[in-house]
Amino acid sequence: MEYTREEKEEFMLEALKEAEIALANDEIPIGCVIVKDGEIIGRGHNAREELQRAVMHAEVMAIEKANQYEHSWRLLDTTLFVTIEPCVMCSGAIGLARIPQVIYGAKNPKFGAAGSLYDILTDERLNHRVELETGILEVECAQMMQDFFRKRRQR
Amino acid sequence: MEYTREEKEEFMLEALKEAEIALANDEIPIGCVIVKDGEIIGRGHNAREELQRAVMHAEVMAIEKANQYEHSWRLLDTTLFVTIEPCVMCSGAIGLARIPQVIYGAKNPKFGAAGSLYDILTDERLNHRVELETGILEVECAQMMQDFFRKRRQR
Fold it and tell me: What pTM does this model have?
């Protein structure tokens, strides 16, 4: 489904709300929502420390919820909104869930695998390719990360 | 911890037992065990269809179990045995869990990310690098995959 710029910003604001949950738990503040036909079918935030589960990144949590909602591992006709560029694991998971469209806020130059270190989502050798858009609420998404790491360094 | 060739084959046989569980469920037959100090602390098999969860590959299931067992997302001093070369998602998950050693049976030329399509586990740009060994019970691990896909094509 195609969304307007305004709709995309609304969904990214929902992803930012998820990031705020992570922030309140003193986790790296990244949030994600998965949308189908204009409705959020999965939400997630980074919960690695809270749950002590290595794979519990925002995107994986949202994919797990959306799989449950759909009773299917295939998330066809969905759009995944995430505040920060997905890492290697999450980019792989997005492909495995067959998510056709990904929109992220800000780049992650150190760990990003959707344009920074790798181009996993658009690699023609893999059997699933994703339509990728970046820069929606980029400043807000990046700012939340910068504030978190600045505070952490000050401690 | 260093294991002898015989010990490695014993652990790979345990991973193959997990692959057989997947096979019995008509899933792509891949199995995994995570070992610490000579003891298996997490087992997993591909359960994507059974559980309808896109991320439920053998390695992720084993990492989740080991995280639970250790009450920690960090799987320090562990060795992960998996029958087939990990995909992009699982290679990323192995790094995120800080698993220091990975041993796999057979290559996966189409989807492998630990030597075939990518070298995620040994990429010096990432903040965790893995000691990688391949070829333990390679024939047995590859055979199980070949049998599965041959039967699937015949249907």
Answer: 0.97
Around A124, how many Cα atoms within 13 Å sit in the side-chain half-sphere?
0
Q: Hey, are the CB atoms on A126 and B88 less than 8 Å from each other?
A: yes
Domains of chain A, with CATH numbers? 5-149 (3.40.140.10)
pLDDT tens per residue, range B67-109? 999 999 999 999 999 999 999 999 999 999 999 999 999 999 9
Chain A residue with Cα closest to B124: A117
CB contact under 8 A, A73 and B48: yes
Residue with tokens 């980029």: A138
Closest residue on chain B to A48 (Cα):
B73
Q: In terms of DSSP bridges, do strands B31-36 and B39-45 run parallel, antiparallel, or are they unpaired?
A: antiparallel
Distance separating alpha carbons of residues A43 and A148, to the nearest angstrom: 21
Distance between CA atoms of residues B124 and B116, nearest Å: 17
